[in-house]
Write a structure and sequence with these properties.
The chain is an alpha/beta fold and 225 residues long. The protein is built from eight helices and twelve strands. The strands form three sheets. A five-stranded parallel sheet has the order 2-1-3-4-5, with helices on both faces. It has a four-stranded antiparallel sheet with strand order 6-7-8-9, with helices on one face. It has a three-stranded antiparallel sheet with strand order 10-12-11. A hairpin with a 2-residue loop joins β8 and β9. α2 runs parallel beside α3 and α6 packs across α8. It is elongated and about 55 Å long.
Length: 225
């Protein structure tokens, strides 16, 4: 999952960045509202984390402009302000949730996971697709109750496809949601990871789990329970 973090407190920004990278997210970072607006309009993120007290363009205005541009990904606001009016203003501007500083990074991760699941129409952290089971909180994967181990990049691709069952996703979209903005879009890395996922999850191709649609992309099939 690819996130946008807009935070001007550099020590906090770096701490959150490391925590989110360790949690297997891909992350773009901005240090002011104008930079956040540019990145937020340029890329279609899975979620954004936006501080309210930003320089150049405050968080409320940033959120309002992103929503006006049709950016509908979940937004979690961070605020050092303790009064309820600021939180209400942020939610009314289009944010989906908020955290008041100081907070535990684990709470941030839990809220992000919940927002991303809900945006994909999933209420539970456990996604079941036939014999395949994914726990998006613990990152545990099993097929017919046998644990499957994936690398970090394999997991990112698998989770994204599981959150969008039955949807065709192009190679470009997959790269944009899994890797940072400097990644080479002409790379064949997606094909490599698709092959690895098929080999680990469905080695005999009994499930026909991941379909290739020529000229369109890939689709994770919805399987019968």
């Amino acid at each position: 999952m690819r996130l946008l973090l807009v935070e001007d407190d550099i020590p906090l920004q770096q701490n959150l960045k490391q925590h989110l990278l360790d949690a297997n997210y891909t992350l773009d970072v901005a240090s002011d509202g104008e930079e956040g607006l540019f990145q937020g309009e340029e890329y279609n993120y899975d979620a954004a984390i936006i501080d309210l007290g930003l320089p150049k363009l405050d968080g409320i205005t940033l959120i309002t402009r992103l929503r006006a541009q049709g950016r509908d990904y979940p937004i979690l606001i961070l605020t050092a302000r303790d009064n309820w009016q600021d939180k209400v203003e942020g939610l009314d501007a289009g944010a989906d949730d908020y955290l008041t500083k100081p907070f535990h990074p684990e709470e941030l991760t839990a809220r992000l996971n919940a927002l991303i699941r809900r945006s994909a129409g999933k209420s539970s952290p456990v996604i079941q697709n036939g014999p395949i089971r994914l726990n998006t909180s613990s990152h545990e994967i099993s097929v017919n109750e046998m644990q499957i181990n994936l690398s970090g990049s394999e997991y990112k691709l698998f989770e994204y496809l599981m959150l969008h069952l039955g949807e065709v996703k192009s190679k470009t979209v997959l790269i944009e949601h899994i890797y940072d903005q400097d990644f080479d879009l002409d790379s064949n890395v997606i094909e490599v990871f698709i092959r690895r996922l098929r080999k680990k999850l469905d080695p005999d191709n009994q499930l026909g789990l991941i379909e290739t649609l020529r000229g369109q992309g890939y689709r994770m099939r919805r399987l019968q329970d």
